[in-house]
Amino acid sequence: MKVEGIKTICNLGTGTMGFGTAVMFAMAGYHVKMYGRSDKSVDRGFAGVKAALATYQENGLVKAADIPAIIARIKGVTTLEEAAADADFVIESIAEELPIKQEVFTKLDKICRPHTIFATNTSGLSPTKIAEAIGRKDKFVVAHFWNPPHIVPLVEVVPGKHTSQETVDVTWQLMEKIGKKPVALNREALGFIGNRLQLALLREALYIVESGIASKEAVDTTMKYSLGRRLSTTGPLESTDLGGLDIFYNISGYLLEDLCNDTKISPLLKAAVEQGKLGAKTGEGFYTWTPEALAKIKKTRETILLEWLHKDKKMEF
Q: Where are the beta strands (DSSP E) in the chain?
């Protein structure tokens, strides 16, 4: 399989991630079969597609005249047979549960043509385990989009134990063709790259609050107005080079021993979950989220991310 041979995409899922991946492939000219378990699910997916394209149009990222053709390249379906029969590439964004993913890919293995590549948009499950029951283990890979998938550029391409280099290469090239910024891991690891870094940061942030060093507001403000600004242009290793390895060496000598290295779930996080305080979706987590506050921060995040999309088109980092 060469990337030029990919024409039709089987897009499994219509939720937060599913509609976003469908948009990206359709904008790049691919024919997309967007699978949902019901007509209601498919309608929800198209609502997300239209909303994403409207946001793109408002920000000068797509022309209004092009939107009908983009939507027309997406066909909503409610059976796996119709979704996958003529697919060259499958992108799956269904429930983040190993047995469900295994069941779906086992069915797809019997439906799809031999050359079809299977990609899962899992946030951290093992591709080797997901692919255990299928025959085409060499054609199974993770393509992990970040939320919101139509705005955040990164896609992590993660091989399983049996994934061929050709599958990794073709998936990487396909992600570039739809306008994403792919990174490939040399081997699979729980959480891949992004979530390993994110959870390491979260562990220390929670520890700072739990131990009384600073408030949650101070932690978030520090990140947003210092490291957050800088890390958008220089990653942690580049930042270390720019700051001087000797400086970071000396800081490591006295600071590492004082950092949190607990391997258990944070008591602060555990208590919140046990109390049903799950964050924005329940109205309260570490913060209280009124509908107005939630809408405001989502809009702010979207605006800043869209500004970066414009910058990405003008410069190469």
A: 8-12, 31-35, 74-77, 89-92, 117-120, 140-145, 154-159, 181-184
Is 93 designated active site?
no
Catalytic residue selected from 195, 239, 266, 302? 195
DSSP for 251-298 reads: HHHHHGGGS----SPPHHHHHHHHTT--BGGGTBSSSB--HHHHHHHH
In the residue annotation, 144 being an active-site residue is answered as: yes
Number of residues assigned to the chain = 317
Cβ(92)–Cβ(116) under 8 Å? no
Rounded to two decimals, the pTM is: 0.95
**How would you classify residue 74: left for phi > 0, otherwise alpha for psi between -120 and 50, otherwise beta?**
beta
Beta strand 74-77 pairing with 89-92: unpaired
Burial of 15 (0-12, 13-18, 19+ CB in 10 A): middle
Question: Nearest Cα to 118, choosing from 126, 130, 31, 179?
Answer: 130
pLDDT at 317 over 70: no
Could you confirm whether 261 is annotated as catalytic?
Answer: no
Q: Strand pairing partners for 39?
A: none
Decide if 123 is catalytic. yes
Q: How far apart are CA 206 and CA 245, in angstroms?
A: 27
92, 121, 156, 188: which is the annotated catalytic residue? 156
pLDDT at 315: 77
Q: Which residue in the list 41, 59, 82, 123 is annotated as catalytic?
A: 123
Stretch 210-230: mean pLDDT: 97
